[in-house]
Amino acid sequence: MSALALLILIIAVVAVLLVGTVVGFLVRGRKPAPLPNTHTDVIVTPPPATDADTDAPPVEVSAPPATIERPEPTATRLVRLRQRLAGAQGGFGRGLLALLSRDRLDEDTWESIEDVLLTADLGVQPTQQVVEGLRTRLRVEGRPEDARTALREELVKIVDPSMDRRLQVSGADGKPGVVLVVGVNGTGKTTTVGKLARILVAEDRRVTLGAADTFRAAAVDQLATWGDRVGVEVVRGAEATDPASVAFDAVKHGVDDGVDTVIIDTAGRLQNKAGLMDELGKVKRVIEKQAPVTEVLLVIDATTGQNGLIQARVFSEVVDVTGVVLTKLDGSAKGGIVVSVQRELGVPVKLVGLGEGPDDLAPFDAEAFVDALLG
Ligand SMILES: Nc1nc2c(ncn2[C@@H]2O[C@H](COP(=O)(O)OP(=O)(O)OP(=O)(O)O)[C@@H](O)[C@H]2O)c(=O)[nH]1
């Protein structure tokens, strides 16, 4: 091949390659641009998620347990716990009775009586009321009234037996009752939810628990254990799930399942009032899309005295509290806190915690409480 023929061949090959590149470029350039992501009228529902689709489903319902405990009936637990209450509070009652039984009730004695009442966290105003009542009754010349009877009656009056202490655990229109449990962390909320479930199970009620204390992962596991022991389902979310979404799912589950009562445990950290109001307000709002909240129980630790009461007051300002659970009364000699709590918050003490055992929660009764105080 001559040099000229070789040159023509090279030019031809280069020309073919150039034409191919330009045509390819033009074809790509003309390709239609993707459509903007516009609204569509047709919503395709994805197939329901299966267990294989998600490693950690947002909400879980606990599996039924292998063995189920039978909780202690309410009646016998009251008798047993009254003895424990008397053990913790007896000193206070005995001290008062000893002072009131003196031959002469002089001013020093009345002052000592006042001190005993104040030391038991009864509060200033109720203390004055009790002392005034006793002074009037025991001043009578001739046949003075029995000191024990007078003290018992004055204390019962101050604890107020006329308050409605029934727990609203039933709903209306075929819906479950919903109990929301709130309070400062560490007061015993999760424990109380577990114990309350046992009281209801002992009364043959069907219960669902909602573990909306997603702030503390251990609280969710703790509640699941309480539920498992008595065959109660616990609806729980993954760690740090929105508490309101867990509460919603728990109540929905309870409604769909036709249970009698749903109890919701909350975290309710007390960082500031606005944050607390947002969190508990939202929990309550979303629950009420399913069923009305029938009872809001505020848990207060009796051993924290007046300080605990100040913190509790913030909760009562952000949610409409309907009853108080006073825990750890077994570890405090200051039973007078019952009266301070009721006066401060204007709601009755409905339940008292008297130990760490599973059945150590009892309905509160004014007369039985005072009898235990007097030993
Ligand atoms: N002695 C006694 N201990 C109690 C009583 N109620 C609860 N406790 C104990 O108090 C501790 C705290 O209880 P929790 O139920 O974990 O408290 P909580 O309010 O849920 O705490 P957070 O989840 O941190 O908000 C636990 O060790 C309970 O066993 C009671 O009536 N008596």
TrEMBL record:
<dbReference type="GO" id="GO:0005047">
    <property type="term" value="F:signal recognition particle binding"/>
</dbReference>
<keyword id="KW-0472">Membrane</keyword>
<feature type="binding site">
    <location>
        <begin position="183"/>
        <end position="190"/>
    </location>
    <ligand>
        <name>GTP</name>
    </ligand>
</feature>
<dbReference type="InterPro" id="IPR042101">
    <property type="entry name" value="SRP54_N_sf"/>
</dbReference>
<comment type="subunit">
    <text>Part of the signal recognition particle protein translocation system, which is composed of SRP and FtsY.</text>
</comment>
<feature type="region of interest" description="Disordered">
    <location>
        <begin position="38"/>
        <end position="67"/>
    </location>
</feature>
<dbReference type="InterPro" id="IPR013822">
    <property type="entry name" value="Signal_recog_particl_SRP54_hlx"/>
</dbReference>
<dbReference type="GO" id="GO:0005886">
    <property type="term" value="C:plasma membrane"/>
</dbReference>
<keyword id="KW-0342">GTP-binding</keyword>
<dbReference type="GO" id="GO:0005525">
    <property type="term" value="F:GTP binding"/>
</dbReference>
<comment type="similarity">
    <text>Belongs to the GTP-binding SRP family. FtsY subfamily.</text>
</comment>
<dbReference type="InterPro" id="IPR027417">
    <property type="entry name" value="P-loop_NTPase"/>
</dbReference>
<dbReference type="GO" id="GO:0003924">
    <property type="term" value="F:GTPase activity"/>
</dbReference>
<dbReference type="InterPro" id="IPR004390">
    <property type="entry name" value="SR_rcpt_FtsY"/>
</dbReference>
<keyword id="KW-1003">Cell membrane</keyword>
<keyword id="KW-0963">Cytoplasm</keyword>
<feature type="binding site">
    <location>
        <begin position="265"/>
        <end position="269"/>
    </location>
    <ligand>
        <name>GTP</name>
    </ligand>
</feature>
<dbReference type="GO" id="GO:0005737">
    <property type="term" value="C:cytoplasm"/>
</dbReference>
<comment type="function">
    <text>Involved in targeting and insertion of nascent membrane proteins into the cytoplasmic membrane. Acts as a receptor for the complex formed by the signal recognition particle (SRP) and the ribosome-nascent chain (RNC).</text>
</comment>
<dbReference type="GO" id="GO:0006614">
    <property type="term" value="P:SRP-dependent cotranslational protein targeting to membrane"/>
</dbReference>
<dbReference type="Pfam" id="PF00448">
    <property type="entry name" value="SRP54"/>
</dbReference>
<keyword id="KW-0378">Hydrolase</keyword>
<protein>
    <recommendedName>
        <fullName>Signal recognition particle receptor FtsY</fullName>
        <ecNumber>3.6.5.4</ecNumber>
    </recommendedName>
</protein>
<dbReference type="InterPro" id="IPR003593">
    <property type="entry name" value="AAA+_ATPase"/>
</dbReference>
<dbReference type="InterPro" id="IPR036225">
    <property type="entry name" value="SRP/SRP_N"/>
</dbReference>
<feature type="domain" description="SRP54-type proteins GTP-binding">
    <location>
        <begin position="348"/>
        <end position="361"/>
    </location>
</feature>
<keyword id="KW-0675">Receptor</keyword>
<dbReference type="InterPro" id="IPR000897">
    <property type="entry name" value="SRP54_GTPase_dom"/>
</dbReference>
<dbReference type="Pfam" id="PF02881">
    <property type="entry name" value="SRP54_N"/>
</dbReference>
<keyword id="KW-0547">Nucleotide-binding</keyword>
<feature type="binding site">
    <location>
        <begin position="327"/>
        <end position="330"/>
    </location>
    <ligand>
        <name>GTP</name>
    </ligand>
</feature>
